Each structure stands twice: as structure tokens, then as C-alpha cells.
Amino acid sequence: MKIFKIVTAFTAIVLAIVLLSFSQKKEEKRKEKSVQTSSETKVAYFASGCFWCVEAIFESVYGVEEAVSGYAGGHTKNPTYETIGTGSTGHAESVAVYYNPKKVSFQTLVTVFFGSHDPTTKNGQHPDYGSQYRSIAFYENQEEKEIIENTIIKLNKEVYDGRIVTEVMRMDTFYPAEEYHQNYERLHPENPYVRSVSIPRLHKFKRKFPKLLKKEEE
């Protein structure tokens, strides 16, 4: 009987280790989403409302090789779409923008960021509201921080009369979102939200910055 109990306990421990290993590998797979880029690629990070919309906007810009939807700016590990929706993780729906600096500058990406959403709306972009939809421009070094801050100063003076509420935050950890969120606007053009919000927002951006767009063949 004693031997049976020992074997049962051992089996339970092995099963727990296997399940933990499977869970960790699944999480690593989500984090290590493959992105096809060139050797010169750099990455910039932005949050400005629903990441379906933001991803599509940046992917339309010349010099951007890929944009990945995800979560950033929070204080907990391994956030999910469900947990960030509660507002308890501190994360915002964000996008990692993979770009070729020989084709498009960080300054231009910052211009795209501010030019494609309302940076004066706190915790939201119509019709989505909550801290997970707040406006954040992330930086990874002092040069990027100064570019963002100088752009805010300029826009506050010339356009927004000091009303910009965008957070300027050092990038800590970016968590790619679940696979079904990636390229959502392109893959689901029939979705009611995409039709009424995402696509109109993309078209508005394209009309505003036609010279920044990729050519049709790209």
C-alpha cells in the first residue's frame, strides 16, 4: 500500500512537470512569433487605441516591414487579451513596428503615430475606452525619447494648445498578442467593427499622409 502511494505521488509530480513544461513552451511560442525582416530592421512601439487599427495603419507606411499587435506598458507578466481588458494589468493594446531606418525614420513613425489618432483623449480612442486603449509613445534610448518629447512640444504649441495626454514611456517588455489578433483587419474585412471603425480610420490616415504610403506593388 505504501509503495502504491509513493508511485501515485511520483506519477502526479511527473504529470505536473509535464503540464508546466507544456504551458511554458506554449507561452514561449507566443512570445517568439516569427517576423520576417531584413538585417537592418529596427523596432518602434506605440499604443493608440485598438491594435487592429494601429497595426493596419503602420503596415501601410513605406519602410515598415511588419507590425505586430501586442501588450505593453503594464506591471504584470504574460498578459492576455482577457486580463488587460480588466484594466488590472496596466497594459495597453500596443504595436511593435518593424522598420528599415534607411527607408523611414523614427521621427516619421512618431509623426504617423500622432497623425493617426487623437492624442488629447485620455484612456481611449472612440469608440473604445479604458486604460488598455490609452495613448503611449514608447522609447528605447535617449534619442528616441527626445524625438517624442520634441514632437509633443511642437504639436502642443501648433495644433493642440497643450492638451496632449500621450504618455512617454520607456519600453520594458512587449508581449505579442494571441495569434488570432494578428493582421486582423486584413483577414476579417467583413467584421462589423473593422468595417465601421478600423477601415475608416485607415482610409482617413491614407488621405492625410499619401506621400508616406507604400506603393501598390509592395
From TrEMBL:
InterPro entries: Met_Sox_Rdtase_MsrA_dom (IPR002569), Met_Sox_Rdtase_MsrA_sf (IPR036509)
Top-tier EC class: oxidoreductase
Similarity-based family: Belongs to the MsrA Met sulfoxide reductase family.
Keywords (A to Z) from UniProt: Oxidoreductase
Keyword Transport attached: no
Annotated ranges, domain Peptide methionine sulphoxide reductase MsrA: 44-193
Source organism (scientific name): Tenacibaculum tangerinum
A Pfam family hit: PMSR
Task performed by this protein: Has an important function as a repair enzyme for proteins that have been inactivated by oxidation. Catalyzes the reversible oxidation-reduction of methionine sulfoxide in proteins to methionine.
EC numbers, comma separated: 1.8.4.11
Active site: 50
Name of the molecule in the record: Peptide methionine sulfoxide reductase MsrA
GO MF assignments: peptide-methionine (S)-S-oxide reductase activity
UniProt catalytic activity: [thioredoxin]-disulfide + L-methionine + H2O = L-methionine (S)-S-oxide + [thioredoxin]-dithiol; L-methionyl-[protein] + [thioredoxin]-disulfide + H2O = L-methionyl-(S)-S-oxide-[protein] + [thioredoxin]-dithiol
